[in-house]
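Notebook, p. 212. Picked up where the previous page left off. The plan for this session was modest: take the two constructs that came back from the sequencing core last week, fold each one, and keep the raw output in the notebook itself so nobody has to go hunting through shared drives later. Recording the first one now, exactly as returned: residue sequence, then the structure token string.
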Amino acid sequence: MLPERYCLIDVETTGFNPRRDRIVEIACAVIEGERVTERWSTLVRPGVSIPPYATAVHGITNRMVAGAPRLSRALKRARRFCAGRIVATHNARFDLSFVGTRLCLQALCTLRLARALFPDAPNHKNQTLRYYLGIDALAEEPLIAHRALGDALVSAHVLTACRRRFRTSRPYQSWSRFIECNAMVTSPVGHWPN
């Protein structure tokens, strides 16, 4: 298997509805082979007030995003990290519903991949997999849950663990075909408010 290049993305938002809610943070973690080689994140000025229930999850406040770049500028930078790489994210339907084709046409979903390769995990949420796979012991930096960079880094380690599991459990199968059949999600085409 050739070393593949991935860009793991994650977004934090003001809520769950991509037609009404906005991105407040975006991050990228780049994998070359099995190592995270680059990482980047930025807060995003959403143009709307962040509801208290969203702040309670990710800790991002209106004051924190007041001087942040607009989404168009943040996506331009994120596209540079994604260029020439396979874009991946945990629960791709959610993240792609917010960034859509403005970032990529399709993405590898590490949630789907983990379901296929670690069926015995208690569940396949990012933070559950973090502990199930012992990611904290492997990470070279703190992983802050429910912040875009921390979640992107956890997803990067989940992807690496999935690739290792695939190599040992399915040595005669094609990784490319496996992810195409089990983990690729197409970006929705539509109108995004920010």
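Okay, moving on. Second construct, recorded in the same format:
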Amino acid sequence: MTWAGPSVGAFVIALVVGCAAQRPAPHLGVFVPTPTEIVERMLTLAEVTRDDVVYDLGSGDGRIVNLAAERYGARGVGVEIDPQLVWFARRSAKRARVAHLVRSSTKMRSRWTSTSSMPTRPRPMWPRSMPAGCIPSPGRCT
């Protein structure tokens, strides 16, 4: 058996310390990915173009902003509370070669004034927790 050397040991220590330093995401429910067909329809209804900036709050794996960038050339900002899902979103953006157009983060660092499209999806808990008529629908911000 050969010894792996200090580089592997340092990597393992850095990985463990890095994982321990992250706060776990609060449990706000399970991640339910939006089917691709629905994402495509939402982006079509919103009439997304390459001049738009698409925000997705609770972006999960980033499929909405990544698809907006891939299909329409739009810039995108995904905000997700779970760091693991942010990692998946960033990886998906790199694989789709749209990482230069999309930013995924656990923090909101952008100004809302640049927003041109923000997809929203009713969640099962919304009807009970929000007054009637307050459930938004996907569309353009004007």
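Notes on construct two before I forget. The chain has a mean pLDDT of 74.
Flagging for discussion at group meeting.
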